[in-house]
Write a structure and sequence with these properties.
The protein has 451 residues and is an alpha/beta fold. Helix content is 22%, strand content 28%. It folds into two domains: 221 residues, Spore Coat Polysaccharide Biosynthesis Protein SpsA, Chain A; 192 residues, UDP N-Acetylglucosamine Acyltransferase, domain 1 (3 Solenoid). The protein is elongated, with a radius of gyration of 31 Å. The protein binds uridine-diphosphate-N-acetylglucosamine (UD1) and magnesium ion (MG).
Length: 451
C-alpha cells in the first residue's frame, strides 16, 4: 500500500524508431509481457488510484494493451511530440481531476521495483513536493544531471545537451521517474518553456520552477539496472537478461533448485513451487504453473501448462497450452502434449503426440502413440480411461474413447471406441515361412555369381 492515492502517468508516445519495428516500441516484450504491461503491473502493485497512459496518434494497439493490463486506464493522446513536459500535460484532464500525488513513469523502462516507488512516496510523506529517482550510471552521457547543493538538496535537472562542462561532470543522473505532491500541478507544468537545446518542453524543468516557488525537492537513488531504458533491440535483450536474472534468484530463494540457472528462461507469470528441480535449458513461456516436487529434466519447452506435484517431465518434452498434468505424471523425451488433461500417475514416456483430450489416472501411453486430432477442418478429442494401456505406435483417430483398463495392441490404427477392459488391435495377421531366409540367401548368391 505504497501509493494508494497516486495517479500514475505513463509516457508511451515515443515512436521508438531505433527499434526498427512496425510494432510500437512499448509493446515489445520482456519475459513474455510488453514493456507497457510491466509498467502498468508496477502501477497495480503500487496500488495506484488511477493510471493515465500518454500515447501518440494511431496507437490503437498500445491503447488496447493498456486497457487489457490495467482496468480503467485512461488514454491521453499527445498529438505532436514536443517533449516530456508536454507529454505529461496531454494527461491534463486526468491530473486536474485527481486529488493526490502524481507519479510519472516511462513505458520503455520496465524494470523498476515497487519498493523503489514506495521509497519515492516516502519522500513525499516526509515533506517533499517533488521527488526524483536518480541513479549513477557507469556512463552518464546523454542523461539529465541532478544538480544538488552542498547539503544534497536537489536544485535543478540539467539535460545533457544544455549542461555546462562542469555540470557534465556530475554523475548523479535523472531516471525520468518524478513524483509530485503539488496542488494544481498543471499550473506549475504550464510554466515550463522550450528555450533549450532541443526546443522541447522538458518535464525536468519542473524542479527549478518548484524550487523558485519555495517547494521542497528530493532525490531517491536506485541501481542503474532498475532504470534501464529500452531504445534499441540490444537494450531489450539487456532488460530481458536483467529481468531473468532477478526472477531466477527469486525462485531459488523460494526453494527452487536450478542446476544451471543462466539457461532457464522464465515468463512474467511463471509460478514454480518449492522443491522443484530444473535441469539445464528449460524455457517457460507464459501461463505455466509447476507444483511442488516436480522434476524438470533438461531441454524442455512449456507454455500455458500445469505440471502437478512430483511429476517428472523431459528431457526434451514440449507442453503446450491446455496441458494439465496431475501429480506424479511422467512425460518423457520427444513427447508433445497440447490441451490434454493427464490424470494422476499417467505416463507418456517416449515419442508421442497427445493433442486434445484426456488421459485417465495411471494410464500408460506407449512410444510412438499419436492422437490424430485434426482432419484438416476440425479438432476432435481422444478420451482414454483410467489404467488403459496404449501399445506402442498406435494411432488413435479422434473423436474416440478408450475405456478404463483397455489394451490397444501395438501398431494399431484405432478408429472406433473401445470398451472398458477390452483388447483392441488393428493390423494384419503375422505370416511366418520357416526356412525362407536360407533359401533366399542361396538364391541371391547364385544370381550374383552369374552376373
Ligand atoms: C529523459 C529526461 C532525462 C533523463 C532520461 C532518462 C527529460 C527532458 N529528460 O530524456 O533527464 O535522464 O529521460 O532516460 O525529460 N515522450 C513522450 N512524448 C514526448 C517526448 C517523450 O511521450 O514528446 C516519452 C518517450 O516515449 C519516453 C519518455 O517520454 O518514454 C522519455 O523521452 P525521451 O525522449 O527518451 O527522453 P530523453 O531525452 O531520454
Ligand atoms: Mg530516452
Amino acid at each position: 500500500m505504497s501509493t494508494p492515492s497516486a495517479l500514475i502517468v505513463v509516457l508511451a508516445a515515443g515512436k521508438g524508431t531505433r527499434m526498427k519495428s512496425s510494432l510500437p516500441k512499448v509493446l515489445h516484450k520482456v519475459a513474455g509481457r510488453s514493456m507497457l504491461g510491466h509498467v502498468l503491473d508496477l502501477a497495480t502493485r503500487c496500488d495506484a488510484a488511477k493510471v493515465a497512459v500518454v500515447v501518440g496518434p494511431d496507437m490503437a494497439k498500445v491503447e488496447a494493451e493498456a486497457a487489457a493490463v490495467f482496468l480503467g486506464a485512461e488514454i491521453a493522446t499527445q498529438v505532436n511530440q514536443r517533449g516530456t513536459g508536454d507529454a505529461v500535460l496531454a494527461a491534463r484532464s486526468a491530473i486536474d481531476a485527481h486529488e493526490g500525488d502524481v507519479i510519472v513513469l516511462y513505458a520503455d523502462t520496465p524494470l523498476i521495483r515497487p519498493s523503489t516507488i514506495a521509497r519515492i512516496c516516502a519522500k513525499l510523506n516526509e515533506g517533499a513536493n517533488v521527488a526524483v529517482l536518480g541513479f549513477r550510471p557507469k556512463d552518464p552521457t546523454g542523461y539529465g544531471r541532478l544538480l544538488t547543493d552542498a547539503s544534497g538538496a536537489l536544485l535543478a535537472i540539467r539535460e545533457d545537451k544544455d549542461a555546462s562542462p562542469a555540470e557534465r561532470q556530475v554523475d548523479l543522473c535523472n531516471s525520468g521517474v518524478i513524483a509530485f505532491r503539488v496542488p494544481r500541478l498543471t499550473q506549475l507544468l504550464d510554466r515550463i518553456g522550450n528555450s533549450n537545446a532541443k526546443g522541447e518542453y522538458y518535464l525536468t524543468d519542473a524542479v527549478e520552477i518548484a524550487r523558485a516557488d519555495g517547494l521542497q525537492t528530493a532525490v531517491v537513488e536506485c541501481d542503474e539496472d532498475e532504470v534501464l531504458g529500452v531504445n534499441a533491440r540490444s537494450q531489450l535483450a539487456e532488460a530481458e537478461a536483467i529481468w531473468q536474472q532477478r526472477a531466477r534468484l527469486a525462485f531459488m530463494d523460494s526453494g527452487v533448485t536450478m542446476i544451471a540457472p543462466d539457461t532457464v528462461w522464465l515468463s512474467f507469470d511463471t509460478s514454480i513451487a518449492n522443491d522443484v528441480t530444473i535441469e539445464p535449458n528449460v524455457f517457460f513461456g507464459p501461463g505455466v504453473t509447476v507444483e511442488s516436487g516436480a522434476e524438470i529434466k533438461a531441454n524442455c519447452h512449456f507454455e500455458g501448462a500445469v505440471i502437478g506435484r512430483d511429476a517428472r517431465i523431459g528431457p526434451f518434452a514440449r507442453l503446450r497450452p491446455g496441458a494439465k498434468l496431475a501429480s506424479e505424471v511422467h512425460v518423457g523425451n520427444f513427447v508433445e502434449v497440447k490441451n490434454v488433461a493427464m490424470g494422476q500417475g499417467s505416463k507418456a514416456n517416449h515419442l508421442a503426440y497427445l493433442g486434445d483430450g484426456s488421459v485417465g489416472a495411471k494410464a500408460n501411453i506407449g512410444a510412438g502413440t499419436i492422437f490424430c486430432n485434426y482432419d484438416g477442418f476440425n479438432k476432435s478429442k481422444t478420451e482414454i480411461g483410467e489404467g488403459a494401456f496404449i501399445g506402442s505406435n498406435s494411432s488413435l483417430v479422434a473423436p474416440i474413447k478408450i475405456g478404463a483398463g483397455a489394451y490397444i495392441g501395438s501398431g494399431s490404427v484405432i478408429t472406433k471406441d473401445v470398451g472398458a477392459g477390452a483388447l483392441a488391435l488393428e493390423r494384419s495377421a503375422q505370416e511366418e515361412r520357416p526356412g525362407w531366409a536360407e533359401k533366399f540367401r542361396t538364391m541371391m548368391a547364385r544370381r550374383k555369381g552369374k552376373s
